[in-house]
Write a structure and sequence with these properties.
The chain is of the alpha/beta class and about 210 residues long. The protein has helices spanning about 15-30, 50-65, 70-85, 105-115, 160-170, 185-210, and strands spanning about 1-5, 35-40, 90-95, 120-125, 125-130, 135-140, 175-180.
């Protein structure tokens, strides 16, 4: 199994989402020592800007116009990242909630790589995702509870956004792990992390045996 682990939290050793992701990966490796893990730390990897030349390259492709050398170079960076995503079986995301949504670094990655003929095509049928052989595991860390039984469930723009995007690029199976209430004191934080890590380990074992 090949895994691309996308780390969207800058807190590192203090991060709840990273702690749960590490538990998942440890359990996955324990079940399958041959698992290959590619780590994409969005705070260490400098993504190119989706700027003028890149946008021009996008529309040149959509219009069937030959790209200039500068546009082609910009587009090649997108293809490289797209190939990195397409090369794996499992996408693992460690995602803290920022202002009810996802960190801007993760949004940058999604905006950068979600392009026609990279992660999807479209025709008279509509949008056709290309990641149909992938599975995704999303670990969401939240300071308070935004689950289905919470009064604030409708405020959650984190999980719905990721589900929409992953579905749009063709991922058929999306697993969700929540670690909530991390801001309600150290005892609650530890309990939440421990429960999420146990769920992550169980999920990893299930996936490894598929």
């Amino acid at each position: 199994m090949k895994v691309l682990y996308i780390e969207a939290s800058p807190r590192k050793e203090r991060s709840a989402s990273i702690e749960v992701a590490n538990a998942f990966l440890d359990a996955l490796r324990a079940e399958n020592p041959d698992t290959q893990i590619d780590v994409l730390d969005l705070w260490a990897h400098q993504l190119p800007e989706f700027d003028g030349p890149t946008l021009q390259a996008k529309y040149a492709g959509l219009e069937g116009v030959e790209r200039t050398p500068a546009q082609q170079a910009a587009w090649e960076a997108i293809n490289v990242m797209g190939d990195r995503i397409k090369a794996v079986d499992l996408l693992l995301f460690a995602i803290p909630m920022w202002n009810w949504g996802i960190p801007y670094k993760l949004k940058h990655l999604i905006d950068f790589v979600s392009q026609k003929d990279v992660l999807f095509t479209f025709d008279e049928r509509g949008l056709n995702g290309l990641l149909t052989n992938h599975r995704a595991v999303c670990i969401y860390a939240r300071g308070i509870a935004y689950g289905a039984d919470s009064e604030l469930a409708s405020w959650d723009q984190q999980r719905p956004f990721m589900n929409t995007w992953l579905t749009s690029v063709g991922v058929p199976t999306i697993d969700t792990l929540l670690v909530e209430k991390t801001l309600l004191g150290p005892d609650v934080d530890v309990q939440a992390r421990d429960a999420a890590k146990k769920a992550a380990q169980a999920l990893a074992k299930t996936i490894a045996r598929c």
